[in-house]
Specification:
The complex is a heterodimer. Chain A is of the alpha/beta class. Chain A is built from 15 helices and 10 strands. The termini of chain A are far apart. A two-stranded antiparallel sheet of chain B has the order 1-2. In chain B, helix 15 runs antiparallel to helix 16. The chains are: A alpha/beta, B mainly alpha.
């Protein structure tokens, strides 16, 4: 028996990873996983692979420029197309981690909504950080970020993403700064101080989350009275788990993820063809029922059920009131502000 | 002599393996904490032009023309963005400014004078002595930039070491927090593990075997699943709070999760087997006769425990304690899932720098600090236990 126990104990340490090498000419496409990736497979990848007689390897990742840089600089990159967040698209493009996009090959710039096509990226989806609350527990909910900071009107804990990005913007918006002045103010030390001072006012009531599922669990469990959460997660909780979460569109930070082609991809032509396929409005419209992200192809929303469209960040009435993220600001100031954020959250 | 050579030969493959796959990569990674490669690779001529200059003296005019030509070449050979990122660590905003300047210089008509005024118009930062002081400091081949940062220190433009502004100081706090959490978890494991390990030695062999299986059971579940299990138990409407409220012990649910309590509970649970197994191995080796002999000499139960049993159990306690403590130092997933923002340990920052921002210099430096800490603690434990520390039961 003791030997068995020993063997088992050894087994614990003997965890081996089996790498999978992709054959040449296969496309390796990387998304965020979850229901969204299921949609990607069903709507884009499986039909494209069949129509073109190629094999598509599907992988997932959690983001981060460090991962991409390691792949390119380590020389062992096996990824072709990667779904990437806005600041990484810009910084990775500067660093030469991505191929430049040949706009003619993806259907032209005009096919996409403004700002969707950049030097290295093609907009794939639009999403927001929403002020969310449980409609079953709170009949009269918050109306804007100022209410998020109003602990007299809404007593209880609030969940915020454990990140300076978006938290500082939210704080300034709640403090009455007009949306178009938020980043100008954040570029000054006084603006940063003001954001942290605003956050200080509710620090005792803040709970911080890391992964996107957490704020949903916290809301459902009653751990928090309201949360800043990803719009896709809220939508899915309502649709799949019968929740009655409500959201506030006003001033919700809006951002776009893009497809990029990794530098040196041997399948660049195929990759561009797939991105073009994923950029067709009729295809993007099919994606919406899988996960409620905004579309990037002009006219795609018109092909979607109107009830669904009203829940998308790209619905005209929502788009008019959202708050646009400045990816460049975060590439420039993210490192320092992340340190200050960690210092601020670390002291009670 | 012959024998010794044979022994060495037999060890050679393992030694070579360790060197290539363990010592080499670790040394390579840790060297990133002091090496400066980005700026010298991208701006070699600027650095040369700055030779002999020091902050406070007027900038040599040649610096700007050299800087302009570096900007163009570095952009072509794709080294500029890396240098821009490195400089941005010290002066936020430089990243975009430098990339933009490079485009402007590349597009400037022939005969353009690249002087202080040209760059000042782009961004006053680029013509400032502060900027060139930072470039000069990052000229390599080595610098203490990351090491200082990891100790909440920085250099002013003259090169003097000073504290980072108070609202940006984190790492010393995080270091103490890491030690405190690891120490508390170790203590918890000793308090919970010692009675159980003792129980294992006093029941029949067969029962002990079954109990060991129960101790090992959590091992077969992934760390993530076990931690997620604690989330279900500890949350406000979780099993523990619900039961206590239903039984009438509590009126209001307790805050058990997203704070230090949650971290300590789940980390103690996860690491408990590492305490019990070595401890059990040692306790099993203590002959019961010793306790009887002590009793026959008139020692009471408390004297027997503290003067006979505990000293004999010490090697197990030290080994188990060391294993728990050292593993706890590197914990990442559990605090991330059940802790609050003020419960994140050093490895959270290592992970963040490695995968998220890709600041390998900082990641390597924090790793180096953790390695030094572990080695020091190990040495202390060795000394305390008189060199009898063993890392397996």
């Amino acid at each position: 028996m003791k030997n068995t126990a020993k063997t088992m104990a050894m087994g614990i340490f003997a965890v081996a990873c089996l790498g999978q090498a992709a054959a040449a000419n296969d496309l390796t496409v990387v998304g965020w996983g979850g229901p969204h990736q299921e949609g990607l497979h069903a709507v884009y990848w499986a039909p494209f692979a069949e129509a073109n007689g190629i094999k598509i390897n599907e992988e997932t990742w959690d983001g981060g420029l460090g991962v991409l840089r390691t792949k390119i600089e380590g020389g062992s990159n096996t990824w072709d197309i990667v779904l990437t967040e806005a600041p990484e698209v810009a910084a990775g493009c500067d660093e030469g981690l991505f191929e430049e996009i040949d706009t003619a090959a993806i259907g032209g710039v005009d096919r996409y909504i403004p700002g969707a096509v950049s030097t290295c990226g093609v907009g794939a989806l639009v999403w927001n950080i929403m002020l969310a609350y449980d409609g079953d527990k709170l009949a009269e909910g918050p109306k804007d970020w100022a209410d998020f900071f109003d602990t007299t009107k809404f007593p209880g804990k609030r969940a915020l993403r454990n990140n300076a990005k978006w938290s500082l913007e939210i704080a300034l918006l709640a403090d009455g700064v007009p949306a178009d002045q938020v980043y100008d103010l954040l570029k000054t030390p006084e603006g940063v101080d003001r954001a942290f001072a605003k956050l200080d006012t509710i620090k005792a009531d803040l709970v911080f989350w890391k992964s996107g599922g957490q704020p949903i669990e916290m809301l459902a469990a009653g751990d928090v009275v309201m949360a800043a959460a990803y719009n896709g997660r809220i939508f899915n909780a309502n649709r799949n788990d019968g929740k009655n979460f409500k959201v506030v569109w006003k001033d919700s930070p809006y951002t776009m993820d893009s497809w990029v082609i990794m530098k040196g991809s041997p399948n660049k032509d195929e990759a561009l063809k797939l991105i073009e396929f994923m950029g067709r409005p009729e295809n993007q419209a099919l994606m919406v029922p899988y996960s409620p992200y905004g579309t990037t192809a002009v006219g795609a929303d018109a092909l979607v059920d109107a009830a669904l469209v009203s829940q998308l960040p790209t619905a005209p009435e929502n788009l008019a009131v959202v708050f646009h993220e400045d990816a460049t600001f975060w590439n420039d100031n993210g490192d320092k502000l992340a340190e200050r954020w960690a210092a601020w959250t670390g002291t009670n | 002599m012959q024998k010794a050579r044979h022994r060495l030969l037999l060890l050679a493959p393992l030694a070579a393996f360790l060197l290539v796959f363990f010592a080499g990569p670790i040394a390579g990674l840790l060297s990133k904490s002091v090496r400066e490669v980005e700026v010298p690779r991208a701006l070699p001529r600027t650095i040369e032009a700055l030779e002999g200059w020091h902050y406070g003296a007027p900038l040599p005019p040649a610096v700007f023309t050299e800087f302009a030509s570096d900007l163009v070449t570095a952009r072509e050979n794709e080294t500029l963005a890396h240098a821009a990122r490195r400089l941005n660590y010290e002066i936020p905003g430089l990243r975009t400014t430098i990339m933009r300047a490079s485009k402007k210089v590349g597009a400037a008509p022939e005969g353009t004078r690249f002087d202080s005024a040209f760059f000042a118009e782009l961004d006053p930062n680029l013509a400032s002595p502060e900027f060139f002081a930072v470039v000069q400091r990052a000229r390599g081949p080595v610098s203490g930039f990351y090491l200082l940062s990891a100790l909440d220190l920085q250099r002013d433009f003259k090169g003097n070491i000073e504290w980072a502004p108070e609202e940006y100081r984190i790492y010393i706090d995080v270091l103490f927090r890491t030690l405190l959490i690891s120490g508390s978890v170790t203590l918890g494991c000793i308090l919970l593990g010692f009675p159980l390990a003792h129980l294992l030695t006093s029941v029949s062999e067969k029962t002990a075997d079954w109990l060991i299986v129960l101790v090992l059971l959590p091992f077969w579940t992934s760390l993530l699943v076990r931690t997620a299990g604690w989330v279900v138990l500890l949350q406000r409407e979780g099993l523990i709070n619900k039961t206590l409220i239903d039984l009438g012990f509590l009126a209001e649910p307790l805050d058990l999760i997203y704070n230090r309590t949650g971290v300590l509970i789940s980390m103690t649970h996860v690491l408990l087997p590492f305490m019990i197994l070595p401890l059990y191995g040692v306790l099993k080796g203590i002959p019961p006769l010793y306790m009887k002999a002590a009793a026959s000499l008139g020692a009471g139960p408390i004297t027997r425990f503290f003067w006979v049993y505990l000293p004999l159990a010490a090697p197990g306690l030290v080994a188990g304690g060391l294993m728990v403590f050292i593993q706890a130092l590197g914990y990442y997933i559990t605090p991330a899932l059940v802790g609050g923002a003020s419960d994140q340990m050093l490895s959270f920052f290592v992970a963040n720098y490695t995968t998220d921002t890709g600041n390998w210099g900082m990641a390597a430096t924090l790793g180096l600090i953790m390695l030094i800490l572990t080695l020091v603690l190990y040495a202390i434990a060795q000394r305390l236990s008189g060199g009898r520390t063993q890392l397996a039961g």
